[in-house]
Q: What sequence folds into this?
């Protein structure tokens, strides 16, 4: 097979992969097929306005964030507007009052984290100066790589074609981190014999047994990844 040499050819290949294969397991599909015959996933439609927009986007930019991105974007805009309104109301109510120091707390992930650093800050109230402990926020979680030489089980959130699929995979991983899913990462399926090659797999969790992964998959579903499923990762 000849190598893809032009951006237009790469975009057409990405378009064929997005509409001709299952996004979960990579099995081939027909245009009017509603469910994947291999894994049972409800397949994204290829007819209508949204699929037409999807094709335009891929031909224009070479990648696609996923149909869920537009609903997430709308939800984010509503949340930002609500937060801005709440901040404005709070600042108005607190006008003229003495400033207070808030100590933030953060819910933990499955992995143990180092204790946050504590510092003291002088506070002047009514002419008297006292000190109050302030907890520094812990470091933000990052997208991980699958541990080198490690075989195990994980929960696959979404798979994207390796050709021009990196931006979409990174956006999905960022969304998973935002929902506080543990051990979120991206791996190249071509590096593992247990996976179908040619995909960037966004995963959460690194487990030693299938049962442990099965017990955690409901957490991914509750976080908004309804198509998440358990998969073995082995070289």
A:
């Amino acid at each position: 097979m000849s190598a893809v040499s032009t951006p237009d050819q790469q975009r057409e290949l990405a378009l064929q992969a997005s509409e001709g294969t299952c996004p979960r397991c990579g099995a081939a599909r027909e245009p009017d097929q509603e469910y994947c015959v291999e894994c049972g996933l409800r397949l994204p439609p290829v007819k209508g306005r949204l699929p037409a927009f999807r094709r335009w986007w891929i031909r224009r930019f070479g990648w696609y964030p996923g149909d869920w991105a537009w609903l997430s974007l709308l939800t984010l805009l509503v949340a930002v507007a609500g937060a801005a309104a709440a901040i404005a109301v709070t600042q108005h109510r607190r006008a003229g009052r003495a400033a207070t120091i808030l100590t933030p707390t953060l819910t933990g992930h499955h992995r143990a984290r180092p204790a946050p650093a504590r510092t003291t800050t002088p506070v002047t109230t009514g002419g008297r100066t006292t000190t109050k402990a302030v907890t520094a926020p812990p470091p933000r979680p990052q997208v991980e790589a699958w541990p080198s030489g490690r075989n195990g089980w994980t929960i696959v959130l979404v798979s994207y074609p390796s050709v021009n699929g990196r931006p979409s995979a990174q956006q999905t991983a960022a969304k998973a981190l935002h929902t506080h899913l543990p051990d979120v990462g991206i791996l190249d399926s071509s590096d593992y014999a247990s996976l179908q090659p040619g995909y960037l797999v966004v995963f959460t969790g690194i487990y030693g047994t299938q049962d442990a992964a099965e017990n955690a998959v409901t957490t991914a579903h509750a976080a908004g990844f309804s198509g998440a499923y358990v998969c073995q990762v082995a070289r």
User: Anything to note?
Assistant: The chain has a mean pLDDT of 79.
